[in-house]
Amino acid sequence: EVQLVESGGGLVKPGGSLRLSCAASGFSFSDAWMNWVRQAPGKGLEWVGRIKTITDGGTADSAAPVKGRFTLSRDDSKNMLYLQMSSLKTEDTAVYYCLTVFETTGPFWGRGTTVTVSS
Amino acid sequence: DTVMTQSPGSLAVSLGERATINCESSQTVLYSSNNRNYLAWYQQKPGQPPKLLISWASTRESGVPDRFSGSGSGTDFTLTISSLQADDAAVYYCHQYYSIPFTFGGGTKVEIK
Fold this sequence. Notes:
heterodimer, A: 119 residues, mainly beta, seven-stranded mixed β-sheet, four-stranded antiparallel β-sheet, 0% helix, 52% strand, B: 113 residues, 51% strand
């Protein structure tokens, strides 16, 4: 069974840091380009970033609002995706989802982890 | 960036009636080399993650009732609920995964009239 399970969310003060994790199982993680998407309370969906496979260079791209503050990484030996968030702002408060796209069945999402940035 | 314009923002439909949601992308999401539209539709209820209904513009996800259907190609897409049920009250989103940044429609809230 394919699964993506996010963890690491919580309450953090503005300016603080947090690392989110996404544990993947049931598919060949090392062959998957992985994404993070977020949803602020009562708002729509916003793409955060993507990291390619190591074979494809392992490079990451981030959305403009988080560029320079958020870093995507992956550990294929552990089937783990990470999102290192720093200099957090109140507007980063959201549910964070990891997401991949399968060539057969299309997008697949985790259930999300909640990040609250508040003093 | 590809802008996804979804309409209407909300609609109220009677039980058993048809609901139609439109989504227009500012650039094509049809990949010519494989003739696939990189367009998905989701249903989201409060406190839950988005649930995939349709991928590749018209492929229904396993387990999704056949009253849900997707159509369109290139830049214009439609999600149709043929006979609205009470459980279909939710917010619906379109999503292009053709290119980064992935972008999403603003959502359509479907209510029961």
